[in-house]
């Protein structure tokens, strides 16, 4: 009897692993993971931020993750729905579960360890365990290429979202983790993302500024950053030191290590 039950369980697991799904994905890094695990042909729709890899853009037909509509999701007749907990949608989740649609809500990835956990959970859930292990191994090997810099020699940088305000990202943010990987000190150690005053900028005295590529499209855009109140008194302002990261890499994803490598190279391969 026990052998029969075990056989049934194994059969059920195998069936779930090999089953074709109709997946709705909400969260750019989650969609990115699904594509990396060769599940792209089973993703029927994703939110509008899911533009990596480029092939995902054609199915990025839902709204922003904070405003995904129930009607939009159900219009694709999904068998599986996956998101993270950054933008909770309890009403939608409840409705999906009520009609027996598979639901997977993951912890938001704020670090590489969080990302690796997402990969593990997704790969097991959809029967791609081997692919998940291979992906984590690939990322781990890439991480090992980051140049280690003694703390006293690390560049101190401040991350600004845009050129029009002093909105900085502090501790326990995705950019703070990116800086840590790249061996960069964050100039601001407060929690989260906050506006700061000119006095705080002068006291923090960053060596360099980092912003998103869309905020620095032209050469004259640089001057606008250095004209921000207090910035001219900092090392970054005096040396006109500023660089960018792709706006798509502000969140933790499969390209985070690549972005960290670029920052690492920019500041330390002189």
* CATH architecture type of the largest domain: 3-Layer(aba) Sandwich
Content-based structural category: alpha/beta
Terminus-to-terminus distance: 69 Å
The parts where pLDDT drops under 50 for at least 5 residues are 1-15
Question: Helix count?
Answer: 11
Can you tell me the CATH superfamily of the largest domain?
Nitrogenase molybdenum iron protein domain
CATH topology of the largest domain: Rossmann fold
Helical coverage, percent range? 40-55%
* Rounded Rg: 22 Å
**Structural domain tally:** 2
Average pLDDT confidence is 91
CATH class categorisation of the largest domain = Alpha Beta
Main beta-sheet strand count, sense and barrel state: 4 strands, parallel
- Helix and strand run: HEHEHEHEHHEEHEEHEHHEH
Fraction of residues in β-strands: 5-15%
Protein name: ABC transporter substrate-binding protein
Domain Fe/B12 periplasmic-binding: 22-270
Keywords: Signal
Signal peptide: 1-19
């Amino acid at each position: 009897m026990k052998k029969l039950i075990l056989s049934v369980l194994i059969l059920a697991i195998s069936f779930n692993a090999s089953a074709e799904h109709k997946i709705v994905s909400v969260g750019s890094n989650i969609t990115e993971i699904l594509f990396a695990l060769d599940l792209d042909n089973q993703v029927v729709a994703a939110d509008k931020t899911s533009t990596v890899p480029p092939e995902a853009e054609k199915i990025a037909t839902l709204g922003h993750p904070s405003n995904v509509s129930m009607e939009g999701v159900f219009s694709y007749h999904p068998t599986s729905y996956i998101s993270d907990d950054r933008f909770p949608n309890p009403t939608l989740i409840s409705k999906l579960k009520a009609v027996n649609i598979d639901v997977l809500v993951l912890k938001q990835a704020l670090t590489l360890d969080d990302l690796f956990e997402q990969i593990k959970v997704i790969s097991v859930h959809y029967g791609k365990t081997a692919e998940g292990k291979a992906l984590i191994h690939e990322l781990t090997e890439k991480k090992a290429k980051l140049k280690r810099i003694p703390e006293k020699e690390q560049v101190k940088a401040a991350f600004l979202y845009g050129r029009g305000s002093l909105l900085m990202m502090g501790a326990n943010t995705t950019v703070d983790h990116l800086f840590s990987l790249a061996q960069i000190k964050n100039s601001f150690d407060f929690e989260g993302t906050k506006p700061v005053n000119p006095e705080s900028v002068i006291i923090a005295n960053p060596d360099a500024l980092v912003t998103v590529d869309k905020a620095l499209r032209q050469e004259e855009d640089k001057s606008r950053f250095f004209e921000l109140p207090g910035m001219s008194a900092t090392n970054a302002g005096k040396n006109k030191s500023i660089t960018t990261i792709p706006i798509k890499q502000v969140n933790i994803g499969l390209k985070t290590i690549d972005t960290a490598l670029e920052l690492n190279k920019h500041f330390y391969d002189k």
